[in-house]
Amino acid sequence: MLFKLTLGSVRRRRSRLFIALAAVTVGAATVAALSAIYLDLRAQMTRELRSYGANLIVVPAESGSSPAAISGQQLQVLRSLAPPGSLQGAVPYLHGLVDVSDGSRQARTPVTGTIFAEALKVNPYWKIAGRVPAAPGEVLVGTLVARRLALSPGNSLTLSPSSSAVVDQDASTAGGETPPPADRGTPLELQVSGVLSTGGAEDERVFLDLSQAQTLLGRPDQVSSVHLSILGQEPQLEEMAARIQNRLPQLVTRPVTRVSQSEGRVLMRLSLLFYLVVGIVLVTSALGVIITMLNMALERRKELGLKKALGAENRHLLAELLGEAGLIGLMGSLLGIAAGFFLARWIGWSVFDSSISPRPAIVPVTILVSLVMAGLAVLAPIRLAARIDPAVTLKEE
Amino acid sequence: MGLNTTCGCLNRLLKNEALAAGAHWAAPSVVLSRARSAATSAPCVLALRVPSAPQRRSVVSQQPVKSDPLPSGGASLVRLESVSRCYGPVSALAEVSLAVAQGEFLSIMGASGSGKTTLLNIIGCMDTATEGRVIIDGVETSILSRKELTRLRREKIGLIFQQFHLVPHLTSLENVMLAQYYHSLPDADEARLALERVGMRHRLDHLPRQLSGGEQQRVCIARALINYPALILADEPTGNLDEVNEKLVVDILQDLHKDGHTLVVVTHDPEIGALAERCVRLEHGRVAAIPNSASSRRSARQ
Predict the structure, then answer these.
(1) For chain B, which terminus, N or C, has the lower number of CB atoms within 10 Å?
(2) Residue where one domain finishes, among candidates A255, A277, A312
(3) Is the Cβ–Cβ distance between B282 and B119 less than 8 Å?
C-alpha cells in the first residue's frame, strides 16, 4: 500500500514533481559529470600541461678537458628509464655555431640539430610559418634569423662549419663551453621549410636534422642535452631524476621546477574549482528540491490532515514522505547519471579533446548524493506533517 | 459474503481487538453479522455488534468507568461529563454533559458557531476538552497522548465529512484501502465489497474528481465503515449533496442504524435530525435540550 500510495502520489502530481525531479537530476548530472571529469582530470590536465614544454633537462656532467656530450646509447637508456606510459617525449639537442649564407649575405648563427617529430611532441607551442621539415635536406629557421637574412619558406641556404667554439646552450647556462672538434664537416646546402617563432632563444637559431648537425659539427653520435617531458608533478620528476642519476651518474638532471610547480598549482586550483562548483550546484539543486517539496507539503496540508484523521500516525506520514523523496531521489539520480555521462563526454571532447571514460564508482556515489539531497528536502515537510492538527486542517476551506 | 472475505473480516476484527487489548482493553468477545437490505438495489452495509462497554477494561484510565443511566436505557458508548472547550478567551463548549448509548442514533443540531463541530471533534478524538471528562467505549480520552488518541480514533471511530475529504490522487478503492492501511492491513477484496455495498461497484477505479458529490460521499461512508468502528461520526453528511444523493446517503445512515451501529450526526437538516432517536440542540456552546426520542423528533422537524 505504501508503494501504491507513493507511486500514485508521484504519478498523479507529475507537474509539481517534475520540478523536484529536475532539480535532483541537475544536481546528480553535475555530480556525475564533474566526478567523471575530475577523476580523469589529473591525467588529462597533466597531459595538457605538458604543452608547457620539457619538465626535465638532462645534460652531461662537466668532465674537464674532453667535450661533454650525451651518447646515442645513453639517450636510449634515458628513454627506457621513464615509467611506462609517462614519457610524453624525449628530444635530443645538439648545439653549435655555423656560418649561414643565402648566397648574398652571411651570418654566424647558432644551430641546433634535433629530431623534429620528438621536438614537436615536447614543444607543442612552437609556431611554424610554413611546414615542419619532412626530409633531412630541410631546416627550420628562427624568426630573427629569417628576418636578418631575409629568408622565407622555400629559400635555400648554406650552413658551413664555423671556426669558433661550439656553444652548448644548456651547458653554458652552467658555465660550460665546449671547444670545437678537430674534424669539422663540409658545408650543407639546405632548404627552408618553415620559420619558427617561440618568443624565446629558438627565434635566433636554425634547426636541422640531428644526424646532419652531427656531421656538420663533427660530433657523430653526440647530443648536447636531452629534454624530457614526463607526466607527473614534482615527486614523479624527482623520482625520475634519481633513477637517471643512479643509472647514468655521468649525466646531470635538472627538473624544471617552474613548470612542475605551476602544474601542481593549476591542478590544485582545478580541484578546488571542482569542489566549489559541485558544492554550489548541489546547494542550488537542494534548495530547489526543498522549496518544491515544502510547497507540495503545504498544498497537501488537507490531505495530510485527513490521513491523520483517518488514524495515520507521524510514522505513517514519515514513511510516505520519505518514500516519495526516495523515489524522486532515485529517479533523479538515474536520469542524472545518464545525463552526466553525456555531459562528461561532451566536456571531454570540447575542452580536453578526448573522451571521458564512464566510471562505475560514480553510480553509487551519485545515487547516495541524490538520496541525501532528497532526504534533506523532505525534512521540512516531515516537520510540517508532524505539526498538522487534523481538526484545524480539515476545517480550512 | 465469500468465505475468504468473512475470514478477512474476522481476522481484522480479532486483530483490531488484539491491538486494542495490547493498548487499552482486555480481549472482548466479538459478534459479527451482516444484514442484507431487503431492496436489492439499496446499499447495504456490514453490521457489527461491538461488545458493550462494561465488558472492556480500560488500562489507561485505571478506574473502571461507571455508565450513567441513559435515555435509551443502554450502556453508554460515549459519555461526556461537564466538558468545556476554550480557544483562548473564546468558549466553544461550556459544561456539556452527554451520553450516547450503544447502537443509538443521535443528532446534534444548532446554529453555526454553536459548538457542534467542536463537540464532534472532541468525541472523535481530534480535539481535547479543556475541562471535564470524555469517555469513549470505556476509555477516558482526556489523559491520552496524541498518539493514543489517534490509535483510539483509528480503531473505534469512523468519520464521515461534509466535504468528503477523499485523497485526490487515489481511486475510490484506494481511498477505502487507505483507512485499512492505517488501521492494520489493506485488503482490496474487502474494500471492493464495502464500496459495492454503498452502490459504488461501477466506480472502483475512479478518482474523486471523476465522481459526483453523492458518489464521493458514499466512498467516504465506505471508508468510515471499513474498519468496523464502534462509533460513526458524521459532520453534515448531506450538506453538499443534492436531493437525490441526500436520499441515498440518508438511506445508508438509516441502514447503519438498523444494523446496530452507533451514529452521532451533526446536521443542519431537520429531516436528518428527525431520523435520529435523539436530537441534542446546542446554543452558544451549551446543551439547550436533550429531549426524549419522541419529543426530539418533533423538535427536529420544527
Answers:
(1) C
(2) A255
(3) yes
Closest CA to A387 of A293, A318, A291: A318
Q: Which domain holds residue A42?
A: 2-47+264-396
Give yes or no: residues A193 and A309 share one domain: no
Residues A302, A251, single domain; the answer is no
Do both A66 and A12 map to the same domain? no
Tell me, which fold does domain B1-302 have in CATH? Rossmann fold (3.40.50)
Q: How many CB atoms lie within 10 A of CB A324?
A: 24
Q: Are A390 and A309 in contact (CB under 8 A)?
A: yes
Measured distance CA(B213)–CA(B162) in Å, rounded: 10
CA distance B126 to chain A (A): 6
Exposure string of B226-262, with b = 16+ CB inside 10 Å and e = fewer, is bbbbbbbbbbbbbbbbeeebbebbbebbebbbebebb
Q: Does B178 touch chain A (CB under 8 A)?
A: yes
Among residues A255, A274, A289, the one where a domain terminates is: A255
Q: What is the residue-level pLDDT of chain B in tens, covering all 302 positions?
A: 333 444 344 444 444 444 444 333 322 323 333 332 333 333 333 433 333 333 322 323 333 333 333 444 457 899 999 999 998 888 999 999 999 999 999 999 988 888 998 999 999 999 999 999 999 998 999 889 888 999 999 999 999 998 889 988 889 999 999 999 999 888 999 999 999 988 899 999 999 999 998 899 999 999 999 998 999 999 989 888 888 888 888 888 888 888 889 999 998 888 888 888 899 999 999 988 655 555 555 555 55
The C-alpha cell at B234 is 458524521
Residue B147 contacts A where some CB pair is shorter than 8 Å: yes
Q: Note whether A308 contacts B150, CB cutoff 8 Å.
A: yes
Distance in angstroms (rounded) separating the CA atoms of residues B73 and A228: 107
Q: Do A321 and A384 lie in a common domain?
A: yes
Are residues A62 and A42 part of one domain?
no
Tell me: do A311 and A360 sit in the same domain: yes
Nearest Cβ partner for B153 among A4, A311, A395 = A311
Whether residue A9 and residue B155 make contact (CB cut-off 8 A), yes or no, is no
Q: Cβ distance B161 to A394 under 8 Å?
A: yes
Would you call B169 an interface residue with chain A, using a CB distance cutoff of 8 Å? yes
CA distance A373 to A283: 9
Q: Is B218 left (phi over 0), alpha (psi -120 to 50) or beta?
A: alpha
> How many separate domains does chain A show?
2
This prediction has a pTM of: 0.60
| Ramachandran quadrant class, B181 (left: phi over 0; alpha: psi -120 to 50; beta: rest) | alpha
Q: State how far the alpha carbon of A396 is from the alpha carbons of A106, B163, B223, in Å.
A: 101, 11, 21
**Rounded Cα gap, residues A108 and A97, in angstroms:** 7
- The alpha carbon of residue B74 is apart from the nearest alpha carbon of chain A, in Å, by 28
Q: A202 and A302: one domain?
A: no
Q: Please indicate, yes or no, whether residues A217 and A239 belong to a single structural domain of this protein.
A: yes
